[in-house]
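My current task is to audit a protein record that another person submitted. I need someone to confirm that the token line plausibly describes how this chain folds. Take the sequence as given and treat only the tokens as open to question. This is what I was given:
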Amino acid sequence: MVCNSPHILLFLMCVVLGSSYACSKYFGSSYGSAKLPGRSCTDILRQRCNVPTNGIYWIALAQNHTFPVFCDMEAGGWTLVFKLVAGVPGRPATTWNMPFSTYEYSLPAVNTGSTFRRHYKNRIVQNWNVFNPSEARVVLYKLNKEELSLRFKTTGSNNRNWFSQANILESPWQDILTATKNYFTVDGPCWSSGCRDFHINHAYGGCPNDSGWLSVGNAAECKWETRHASGVKLVYSKIATKANYNHYGKFDAADVFAVFLR
């Protein structure tokens, strides 16, 4: 990759990734294939001499078997490791924490869409320390369009404690670092109806007074949850701050919740 290139995408990649990410003429455009897997999407972006596009590539962890991953190359080489689909049953934290992958080799699942009606997780989640990410990115999509994203630092973290206020690098909510919280965790509170996971919450005061930023779960305790279809609900504040979940004009529901690493 030549950072004085007139090609605007190459120039932007150099700005994001640094000029030391020189491509390898030995690998060329075949790097990141099933026969010549990379180590991550960032690694593939570094090594390929063409301009990679978003899509499915192949990687391997520490000499293990190769497997397909979705790479967001346009955002800087992010590897999709986890995806929840709204309306699909199951507790999000259970899928995240279980010691095996789900639909890892099902290519229709390896994207940021909601057509494949199952939750997706690849082996990187349970091999967090092997992959050794420096950053995580949580993205919500609706109608195949990115609605919001949060970025976290992950150096020295594990697959549970990375999701915390202390690790936030970027957020769409202006008050995320200053407002008080009762939850900012992968594993959130549970009731007989289900749980709220990947939960960023300000306060509970009975259903009419619940307020926060993000609720990802299968709970059906309050009207602000049951107004959405059964299964996993991906509810987020679409204003620049926390809000009362019952103020429906300030909240929306996503189709997909995705976690990327790099």
Notes: The longest helix spans residues 8-17. Helices lie at 8-17, 41-47, 92-97, 128-131, 223-226.
